[in-house]
Amino acid sequence: MFMAAPKVILINYNCLVPPVAPLPLDYLGSALEEAGIKPFLADLVWADAPYRFLEETIAKNGPFVLAAVTVRNIDDSSFLSRKFFLPEIRELAEWLQQEWSLPVVLGGCGFSIMPAEVLRYCNADYGVWGDGEDTLAHLANRLHRGREITSLQGLLYHNQGQVKYNPPQYVSLPEKEHLSKRSLVDNHLYFVRGGQGNLETKRGCSGSCIYCADPLARGKKQRLRPARHVVKEFQSLIDQGIECFHLCDAEFNRPPSHAEEICRALIESRISKKISWYAYCSPEPFSRELASLMKEAGCAGINFGVDSASEEMLSRLGRDHDQSSLKRMARYCHQNRLPFMVDLLIGAPGENRKTITESIDFV
Questions:
Q1: Which value, to the nearest 10 degrees, does the dihedral of the CA atoms of residues 168, 172, 176, 179 take?
Q2: Which end of the chain is least crowded, N or C, by CB within 10 Å?
Q3: Does the domain formed by 7-165 have CATH 3.90.1520.10?
Q4: Tell me, what's the pLDDT at 71?
């Protein structure tokens, strides 16, 4: 008996200003299509009346087997506003469940920081911890066919009043060339409204910084994308009219060999002549050669996660650079006329007036 392909609605509820294109939903859309599932995007960023827009989208394109809501941020990380986003996500999940009888799955970097707690608070049906491309596709297909789901890697679900969860799945990126398509999100609209094109060259971070959520959300093992896939993705976005980009890697220069490979591929493909791009980098390792390659490949600026220039605080924070690293980093950027900025993290455990003054004076 013929069974129609399942449909999944992907919902972007991140309405922070300036708007940030929902990169994970673009990747998820490509992965669902690859698995024979029809994805539909409900991007509430541009909706004047979000619930009416959702209602029209579901009525026109449904029925859906699943509603997937991205939780990019739990709060706005602002001391002044202290905006907490989860009540709005909980309200949305309840509306989808009650008004449309749709099972709701949560995912995203914000969700993956503390997945069981967020799932419980929002009372969603399921959650996906870590990479979602494979797990979401398997979940949609199994729900569509009425099959068992509790063994899926990275899945959180309710069982007898408790949240159960399986270890996250981190996908093999060299096998995911289809992620380069970038066809679900209106990336050009985000660009003309003040955003930048965005993409990943890798996932995961092997660093030991005591405060960072990236290893929780994307794993401690770095998984590298082939340079040709990255070039293909750049070209997909260029074809959409985008010429300025931000790389979403935790640290573009780790490992440096991969960063150099990406830069050379951009230079050889001549894409470097068409674009400008920005990246996060670690002060260590950062070489003169990498600075030169980044400049030639179109890099217009680097944000270095310095955190502190106090040796005492750097040790407390689990960082592996020192003041000599920072001097070297700055020298290489100046030599290549490569603009850069540094982030300082003030007020970490053990911070005092002396360490704060030391960092500010050094910078």
A1: 50
A2: N
A3: no
A4: 96
